[in-house]
Design a protein that fits this description.
Blueprint: H1 2-19, H2 27-33, H3 38-66, H4 70-84, H5 92-117, H6 128-149, H7 167-181, H8 187-250, H9 252-265, H10 268-282, H11 294-310, E1 313-319, H12 328-347, E2 353-361, E3 364-372, E4 378-380, E5 383-385, H13 395-399, H14 403-412, E6 416-422, E7 425-433
Parallel strand pairs: 1-2
Antiparallel strand pairs: 2-3, 3-7, 4-5, 6-7
Length: 440
């Protein structure tokens, strides 16, 4: 029995690594790891994970020893599995869904194996060969689920009613226990009901997973569209600047003649005024920043153009190398989402304030975005939640990746992100380790 529990733990491990992003830690674990050095953090994290899994295994074995009632053991094992999912980052609804799905599918497989190959008594006490058969059923079911039905479930999505999937494995388990407790000895009926419930769960989760995949593609398309728009805007900026430079070059000899005549007459103030007019003529209103980094300049000029139209107080400072080893897609997720959220929130406030600082020092990239806001912010656990009401016709809610995906990119570069709100100001501070791209 103990060996079988260890084998089932392997199945559970595979399920969890399919449902959760194993690179994303839970808030409590992240806070704990900050207390240890970077060199020890990886080993401490692995030690904590191993200890939690061993605690779960010990708890399951204890439940088996204390109770022989199948529904009681199922509920207790589900609660222990829910505690196990606290290792990983995710909403509580997703954790409960994972616990019910894993326990439910294992129960359904056990019931199917018993009715097909045994004496129709689902009590958890079987011979060695039966345990092998049950494990085989569970393993095959997990592989099918992982391959086809939960490929995209690890993504944090804002699809409405997603958490209602909790009721599917829950209700299925209730139906299964009704059949088990009725002690039906009809092997064909028991096998058909068990197989039907397994197929029902697989089909529903396959459909939902397919919808999530379509949603992810829609988000990626929105990112590409925004990147193309920023490049198009930057191209227009460059073309306008080039046109003004060509105009100045064409009239340069006339300008120099005029300046020479002013110098001959000893009119330094007139010369200064004339040069200022030339500089003003060269200014491009669409070019708000010019750091030399094409990815940042194109995206920030597009977002700052919108900010200048909608807000009253906009300040931006950018000081970065021309070539950072960070793709445009990641820039788009971070700056695009932060700027969109900041502009929208500031536009609804009285101050209409937006301040942006992007700087690079000794391999570290610092991003600070501060904006005014009005109203109340909703904070869940350690994170901020959107206060916008869901609206299918609101394109921005479909396209918005949200601040959680910003954090995902930050963690990709071993960075950190801090969020604060005080006195009507919302501030996001990001630190990432981004190397300079080497010259070819």
């Amino acid at each position: 029995m103990a060996v079988f529990r260890v084998a089932v733990l392997y199945i559970i491990f595979r399920y969890i690594h399919s449902i959760f992003d194993v690179h994303g830690r839970a808030a409590w674990l992240t806070s704990f790891l900050r207390t240890v050095s970077d060199r020890r953090a990886v080993w401490v994290e692995r030690g904590v994970a191993l200890a939690v899994y061993m605690f779960y295994l010990a708890g399951v074995c204890l439940v088996d020893a204390l109770s022989a009632v199948m529904p009681v053991r199922f509920i207790a094992d589900t609660l222990l599995l829910y505690l196990l999912t606290q290792l990983y980052h995710g909403k509580n609804g997703k954790r409960l869904l994972a616990a019910l799905l894993i326990q439910g599918m294992n129960l359904f497989c056990e019931t199917l194996a018993v009715y097909m190959l045994y004496d129709c008594r689902v009590d958890g006490v079987y011979g060695r060969e039966m345990y092998y058969a049950i494990f085989l059923f569970m393993y095959v079911c997990e592989r099918v689920m992982e391959k086809f039905c939960i490929k995209n479930i690890r993504e944090d999505t804002s699809l409405k009613h997603w958490d209602l999937l909790i009721f599917l494995p829950g209700i299925s388990a209730v139906m299964m226990f009704v059949m088990i407790l009725s002690e039906t000895e009809n092997r064909l009926a028991g096998s058909a009901v068990s197989a039907g419930i397994i197929c029902l769960n697989l089909i529903v989760f396959y459909i939902c997973d397919d919808l999530v995949g379509a949603y992810i593609k829609l988000k990626e398309s929105a990112l590409v569209a925004r990147q193309l728009e920023s490049y198009s805007n930057q191209l227009n900026v460059v073309m306008r600047s080039e046109e003004k430079v060509r105009g100045l070059r064409h009239d340069l000899k006339h300008h120099l003649s005029e300046i020479q005549m002013m110098a001959d007459r000893g009119k330094p103030q007139e010369i200064a005024e004339y040069v200022r007019n030339m500089q003003a003529d060269l200014l491009n209103e669409g070019e708000h920043i010019s750091s030399g980094n094409a990815d940042i300049d194109s995206l920030m000029n597009l977002m700052l153009e919108r900010a200048e139209r909608e807000l009253e107080n906009v300040r931006c400072r950018v000081s970065v190398p021309e070539a950072l080893d960070m793709p445009a897609f990641d820039w788009n997720i971070i700056l695009g989402n932060l700027m969109e959220n900041a502009i929208e929130a500031a536009g609804k406030s009285q101050e209409r304030l937006l301040q942006v600082k992007i700087r690079y020092r000794k391999g570290m990239l610092f991003i600070e975005v501060r904006n005014s806001y009005s109203g109340e912010l909703v904070k869940t656990e350690d994170w901020y939640q959107s206060t916008k009401a869901y609206d299918r016709t609101d394109e921005s809610q479909v396209h918005g990746l949200g601040i959680r995906n910003v954090r995902r990119i930050v963690e990709k570069y071993d960075g950190s992100m801090e969020i604060s709100d005080e006195d009507g100001l919302f501030e996001v501070r990001i630190l990432m380790y981004v190397p300079v791209k080497e010259a070819p």
